[in-house]
Design a protein that fits this description.
Helices cover 41% and strands 22% of the residues. With 237 residues, the protein is an alpha/beta fold. The protein has a single domain, classed as 3-Layer(aba) Sandwich (Rossmann fold), CATH 3.40.50. Helix 3 links the parallel strand 1 and strand 2. Helix 2 packs parallel to helix 3. The longest helix is centred in the N-terminal third of the chain and has 17 residues.
Length: 237
């Protein structure tokens, strides 16, 4: 585990997008996840979100799955299990997992149907998938031109701009899943702060400080949210 000093340094260097997701999701995660659950955090990189959840629910069995070894090293240092593997071919037996986290991953994978089928395969019947992804046309930012918005979206490495709710519903149905709850985050105010930091080329540290001032409101302010937050359940074994 990290020392207090190391943990403070990690908090100061956390990716702004990860910080946003943590605050937007933490209430949902604490409600949906039961202590002692077996969890796969697919594409979880450094395990920041899972680590903070485990601090509140210490009996969780969490494995971070990624193909980025540098991120997995950080997750392992945080005391999380790690697995270097493709999300399209998980080396896990079927019907083993209680909850799968899939946070802003599906838009990076061309074979989205295969991804959802593989997640469904490893989930127990009644198990949950908690997924986030941008809306179908991607994320827009106030005060920025279309060209600059395209630059931001491309910098995130997305294969797809995002998915409509109907797209996700169809993917779930084809894999024995159903949508239980749906919401959105990345509201107008948070996107405005992000645009402001882009316009003025604010440093990573400065951007993180700005984000910390506003992302804590994400669970409570949904105004013009542009990222889906979808909780699904496996209904077929």
């Amino acid at each position: 585990m990290y020392s207090d000093m190391e943990e403070d340094n990690m908090k100061n260097n956390i990716r702004p997008g990860t910080l946003l997701r943590y605050h937007a999701l933490k209430n949902v995660l604490e409600f949906e996840v039961k202590d002692s659950s077996i969890i796969l955090d697919i594409g979880g990189y450094d395990g920041y979100i899972s680590y903070n959840l485990k601090k509140k629910l210490p009996n969780l069995n969490i494995t971070v799955v990624d193909i980025d070894k540098s991120g997995l090293k950080l997750a392992k240092q945080r005391g999380l299990n790690t697995l270097y593997a493709s999300a399209l071919n998980l080396p896990i037996e079927s019907n083993q997992i209680d909850v799968v986290f899939c946070f802003s991953v599906i838009e990076h994978i061309r074979e989205s149907e295969k991804l959802v089928r593989e997640i469904s395969r490893v989930l127990k019947k009644g198990g949950k998938i908690i997924l986030t992804t941008p809306q179908q046309n991607g994320v827009s930012f106030p005060f920025l031109s279309k060209k600059k918005i395209e630059i931001i979206n491309k910098s995130w490495g997305h294969i797809y701009k995002g998915f409509s709710l109907k797209n996700i519903e169809k993917l779930y149905e084809n894999s024995g899943l159903e949508i239980e709850k749906k919401s959105k985050y990345f509201n107008f105010f948070t996107r405005s702060i992000y645009a402001f930091s882009f316009i003025y080329n604010i440093s990573f540290k400065g951007k993180s400080m700005l984000y910390r001032l506003i992302v804590k409101l994400e669970p409570y302010i949904k105004f013009k949210g542009q990222v889906h937050l979808i909780v699904g359940k496996k209904i077929k074994s």
